[in-house]
């Protein structure tokens, strides 16, 4: 059994009042997928399907060996062709955007205004869910009084049940339109276009069978993610692939069916000048002096980052579990919730809400405490701007639906920085790398 020293267990918690950090200790997660042998034999096929090409992988494997996923070197072309075709056939909606780049704490963030997004169709009504009791009052960082934890837990269960009911009533990945499908990726996943795209060629990796978005990712998920990243890395003339995963009620996730979103980085630069300072934030966070580190410099929120260059699916999965455990520790330092007195399970439901981002060289995890931000000026006066934030924030991207909000953010960029501090653990409350 892996033993971790959790801050609540030994009462060595971060004290926001005194702002004196206490040392935390961390033990790496075990290898829960200690499998040996090769995956078997594969054939990559491209076959005509309804007047277009669809990619599939045929595979054979022995009963005691897990199948792998071959690189798909032609994936960028397949995605581009599928996107152009679906757009021409009006099978998807592509929203035009206006973009500006704001430097927040020395880090360039792009703010994209999509005028048409406010008219995006809303999902159908979900079955009625029980109304939760009144919520306990919390401070800005979610810290409750001791006698309010039980009330908050009951409220949380009601919220999760209602959220899950809404999502399951509108599972867009159960049977997506054939015109949006791109490829079958191995035995467990497939690729599909995002029906409502802000960035061109935005596509999604989804599981064939239903798996819960709020459960921890598994090794085959990382095999599929790595195959897609490698396909874009091997393509000529591209900038690579940005992938992100939203998990938990505060992450910005809108579907219960497990899916990882993917955007070609070159398409994230659409509308930016050649001299734009913007680049993917996740790739700025590579830790050079330690294997793991909590990156706080210049970012409004605390994240955990790791250089993952050259890692295979096994290594990526182990790294992810290590980072997830550390993300739980980061949240524990400010929420003081009793749930953190027990070390987290490494499978099944996630203890925390978080965003995960992966590029060719980097994995970043952002523990989340809120899914929305309300902007205020320096005196705390509301500016009338409410934003939802998902995993694209780890690329350095903020999406805005209303022109009023867009103009306010341009006028008060520091208000955006203050707002982003509150989506997770503010970096000014967590001033250094954890002791390992």
TrEMBL record:
This is Uncharacterized protein. GO terms for biological process: nucleotide metabolic process. GO terms for molecular function: ATP binding; ATP:ADP adenylyltransferase activity. Residues 298-426 form the ATP adenylyltransferase C-terminal domain. Residues 155-269 form the Ap4A phosphorylase 1/2 N-terminal domain. Pfam families: Ap4A_phos_N (PF19327), ATP_transf (PF09830). It comes from Fusarium euwallaceae. Gene3D superfamilies: 3.30.428.70. InterPro entries: Ap4A_phos1/2, Ap4A_phos1/2-like, Ap4A_phos1/2_N, ATP_adenylylTrfase_C, HIT-like_sf.
């Amino acid at each position: 059994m892996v033993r971790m020293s959790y801050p609540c267990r030994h009462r060595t918690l971060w004290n926001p009042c005194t702002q004196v950090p206490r040392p935390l200790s961390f033990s790496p997660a075990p290898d829960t997928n200690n499998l040996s042998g090769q995956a078997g034999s594969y054939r990559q096929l491209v076959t005509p399907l309804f007047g277009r090409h669809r990619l599939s992988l045929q595979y054979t494997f022995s009963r005691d060996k897990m199948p792998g996923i071959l690189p798909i070197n032609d994936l960028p072309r397949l995605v581009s062709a599928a996107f152009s075709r679906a757009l021409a056939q009006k099978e998807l909606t592509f929203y035009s955007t206006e973009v500006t780049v704001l430097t927040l704490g020395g880090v360039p963030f792009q703010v994209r205004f999509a005028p048409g997004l406010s008219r995006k169709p809303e999902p159908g009504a979900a079955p009625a869910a029980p109304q939760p009791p009144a919520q306990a009052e919390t401070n800005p960082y979610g810290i409750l009084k001791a006698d309010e934890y039980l009330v908050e837990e009951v409220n949380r269960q009601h919220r999760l049940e209602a959220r899950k009911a809404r999502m399951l009533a509108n599972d867009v990945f159960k049977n997506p339109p054939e015109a949006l499908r791109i490829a079958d990726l191995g035995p467990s996943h497939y690729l599909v276009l995002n029906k409502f795209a802000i960035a061109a060629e935005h596509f999604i990796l989804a599981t064939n069978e239903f798996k819960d978005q709020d459960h921890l990712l598994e090794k085959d998920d990382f095999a599929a993610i790595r195959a897609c990243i490698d396909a874009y890395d091997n393509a000529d003339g591209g900038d690579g692939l940005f992938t992100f995963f939203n998990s938990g009620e505060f992450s910005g996730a809108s579907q219960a069916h497990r899916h990882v979103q993917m955007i070609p980085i070159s398409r994230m630069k659409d509308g930016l000048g050649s001299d734009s300072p913007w680049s993917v934030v996740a790739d700025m966070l590579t830790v050079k002096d330690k294997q793991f580190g909590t990156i706080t410099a210049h970012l409004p929120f605390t994240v955990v980052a790791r250089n993952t260059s050259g890692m295979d699916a096994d290594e990526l999965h182990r790294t992810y579990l290590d980072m997830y455990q550390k993300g739980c520790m980061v949240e524990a330092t400010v929420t003081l919730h009793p749930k953190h007195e027990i070390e987290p399970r490494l499978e099944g439901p996630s203890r925390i809400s978080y965003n995960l981002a992966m590029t060719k060289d980097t994995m970043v995890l952002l523990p989340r405490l809120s899914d929305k931000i309300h902007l205020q000026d320096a005196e705390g006066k509301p500016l009338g701007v409410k934003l939802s934030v998902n995993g694209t924030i780890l690329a350095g991207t903020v999406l805005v639906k209303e022109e009023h909000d867009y103009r306010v953010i341009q006028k008060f960029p520091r208000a955006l920085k203050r707002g982003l501090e509150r989506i997770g653990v503010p970096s000014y409350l967590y001033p250094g790398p954890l002791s390992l």
